[in-house]
Design a protein that fits this description.
single chain; 116 residues; mainly beta; five-stranded antiparallel beta sheet
C-alpha cells in the first residue's frame, strides 16, 4: 500500500460528515476507506480551487458529486455537474476538476487499484 494516510482498514462503517474538511490553501483529500485494492476519499474544494490535469496509468477513478457544482474534464471532454453527477476516468485518461464557485464542492472519489 502507498504511503498515503488511509483510514484504518477495520472500520466498516463511516459517515462522510466525520471526515469532510476543507482547506483555504488547496483542495483537500479526506480518507474514508482504503485497502490494497481500492480507496474511497472525499475531496473538498473551496470556490476557485482545482485539481490539475493528471493521469493514473494503471488505475480507474470515479468522482461522484456530493454537494456543489464542478467542472470536470476527461481526455478533453468537459462537463459541468452538480449533486448526483458522476464521472468515470479510465486508467490512462487525463482528468481534472475545478470548483467554479460560488459554493463549496465535495466529491466522493473511488480509485482502484490505489496508485503506487
Amino acid at each position: 500500500m502507498s504511503a498515503r494516510a488511509y483510514a484504518p482498514l477495520v472500520q466498516a462503517f463511516r459517515t462522510v460528515a466525520e471526515v469532510l474538511g476543507f482547506s483555504a490553501e488547496k483542495m483537500k483529500k479526506n480518507a474514508l476507506f482504503a485497502s490494497e485494492r481500492f480507496f474511497c476519499d472525499v475531496y473538498a474544494f473551496e470556490p476557485g480551487q482545482s485539481q490539475a490535469g493528471h493521469r493514473h496509468p494503471g488505475s480507474d477513478k470515479i468522482y461522484y458529486v456530493l454537494q456543489g457544482i464542478g467542472d470536470f474534464v476527461v481526455d478533453g471532454q468537459a462537463r459541468h455537474l452538480g449533486a448526483g453527477g458522476i464521472v468515470f476516468c479510465p486508467a490512462g485518461a487525463e482528468h481534472a476538476v475545478t470548483n467554479p464557485g460560488p459554493e463549496r464542492l465535495a466529491l466522493l472519489v473511488f480509485m482502484a487499484p490505489p496508485p503506487p
